[in-house]
């Protein structure tokens, strides 16, 4: 009798102590759960074994990356519904030790173990990276950046489009084009930095060179772009040469800690500071402060998480850390501003563009899905599945205000107190 799905759905609800909002289709073809809801497809019993061996986000991620589970229907709706159970249980969620004292919980675990059957779960998918003991050294940062960015330039071109900008775009309207929105974001950064011809710009985490090329071409500045990814650097150098800008743009494979040819008139850091780490952030901010001339500006574009009641209990996102950004860390906006001020910066403007990132991510997901077969050929099925889930889940997180993204404009204000900003500073809008 094909009854795995009804049993699985009932046991999961018993385990959670709450309704399970997705429909389930099991490996035996049976289905159960609310009609019309997105369908969680368990292709094999080993999906259940993965979840039991690593309850919560990591087990679910392993099953997803390995292709043991799938979603049919709207992926964003499914992620949003699951997030309330896996990622956002909140302070009222039971700890494992509390749950184990509940006879119904223990009975549900026994039932799931019986349904999963032997043997032990297989090894984690090969795309998984283990978190090291020594974080954010030059070596570990190079390794983490290589894991994320050296997937292949063709894969990123498929997802990002011709702009090759891998950070939040800036939309005039939701139905605008991705190319226009990314160009407008780069121009917004340049205007906030008040770039003028002949100035020197340091672009920290320059990616595939888009900011460096835009600033040099549109504002006639000289740019040093640095990245730890050799694949990115090679691609960026070719783009610089094709644009005829080799006299104004230099792309280096270099750690920000090793830049020694300041001062610069401006520094842009767009989507890079998430890789720095909480323990290193003050040193990072001080390094950028030291590289700026007095009166120079920093534009720091960075994703932020919401503050926790107990910051000491904060832990990194298991899926993101294992499969997407190894050793990456998000900080609350207030903590970032405080560290910039401790480093000597005067913070002059903060702009939240949270909704813009949700729009950007949905466009990237659409591009990935439209080019799915090619994406699988370029990066492999596991990696393509990682990126699809990561970008869709991130879009939902921005939409629901679980995370945000902010542009912080800071100045190395000289002793005279003259910041160099006009009285009505937001002339860039």
UniProtKB/TrEMBL annotation:
**Molecular-function GO terms, alphabetical:** cyclopropane-fatty-acyl-phospholipid synthase activity
User: Biological process GO annotation list?
Assistant: methylation
Q: Any idea where the Polyketide synthase-like methyltransferase domain is?
A: 155-396
Keywords linked to the UniProt accession: Lipid metabolism, Methyltransferase, S-adenosyl-L-methionine, Transferase
The keyword Zinc is annotated on this UniProt entry: no
- Tree of life domain: Bacteria
Give the start-end ranges of region Disordered: 116-137
Annotated TM spans:
none
Q: Which family would the database say this protein is a member of? A: Belongs to the CFA/CMAS family.
Q: What is the protein's given name?
A: Cyclopropane-fatty-acyl-phospholipid synthase
Q: Which organism is it from?
A: Streptomyces achromogenes
């Amino acid at each position: 009798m094909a009854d795995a799905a009804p049993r699985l759905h009932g046991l999961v609800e018993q385990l959670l102590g709450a309704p399970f909002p997705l429909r389930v289709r099991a490996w035996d073809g049976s289905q159960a759960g609310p009609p019309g809801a997105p369908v969680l497809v368990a292709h094999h019993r080993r999906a259940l074994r993965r979840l039991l061996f690593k309850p919560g986000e990591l087990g679910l991620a392993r099953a997803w990356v390995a292709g043991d589970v799938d979603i049919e229907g709207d992926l964003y709706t499914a992620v949003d519904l699951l997030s309330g159970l896996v990622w956002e249980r909140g302070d009222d969620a039971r700890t494992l030790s509390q749950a184990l004292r509940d006879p119904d919980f223990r009975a549900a675990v026994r039932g799931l173990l019986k349904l999963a059957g032997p043997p032990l779960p297989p090894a984690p998918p090969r795309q998984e990276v283990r978190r090291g003991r020594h974080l954010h050294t030059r070596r570990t940062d190079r390794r983490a950046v290589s894991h994320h960015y050296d997937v292949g330039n063709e894969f990123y071109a498929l997802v990002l489009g011709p702009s090759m900008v891998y950070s939040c775009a800036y939309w005039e309207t939701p139905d605008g084009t991705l190319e226009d929105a990314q160009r407008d974001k780069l121009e917004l950064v340049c205007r906030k930095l008040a770039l003028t011809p002949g100035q020197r710009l340091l672009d920290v985490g320059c990616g595939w060179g888009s900011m460096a090329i835009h600033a040099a071409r549109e504002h006639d500045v000289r740019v040093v772009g640095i990245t730890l990814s050799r694949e990115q650097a090679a691609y960026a150098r070719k783009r610089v040469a094709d644009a005829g800008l080799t006299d104004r743009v230099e792309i280096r494979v270099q750690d920000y800690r090793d830049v020694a040819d300041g001062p610069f008139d401006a520094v842009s850091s767009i989507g890079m500071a998430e890789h720095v780490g909480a323990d290193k952030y003050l040193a990072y901010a001080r390094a950028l402060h030291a590289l700026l001339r007095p009166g120079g500006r920093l534009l720091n574009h960075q994703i932020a998480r919401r503050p926790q009641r107990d910051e000491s209990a904060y832990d990194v996102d298991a899926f993101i850390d294992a499969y997407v950004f190894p050793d990456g860390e998000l900080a609350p906006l207030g903590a970032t501003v405080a560290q910039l001020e401790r480093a000597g910066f005067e913070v002059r403007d903060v702009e939240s563009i949270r909704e813009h990132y949700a729009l950007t991510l949905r466009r990237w997901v659409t591009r990935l899905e439209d080019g799915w077969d090619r994406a699988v050929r370029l990066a492999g099925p596991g990696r393509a599945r990682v990126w699809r889930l990561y970008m869709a889940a991130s879009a939902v997180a921005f939409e629901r205000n679980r995370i945000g993204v902010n542009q912080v404009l800071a100045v190395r204000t000289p002793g005279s107190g003259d910041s160099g900003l006009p009285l009505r500073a937001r002339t860039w809008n």
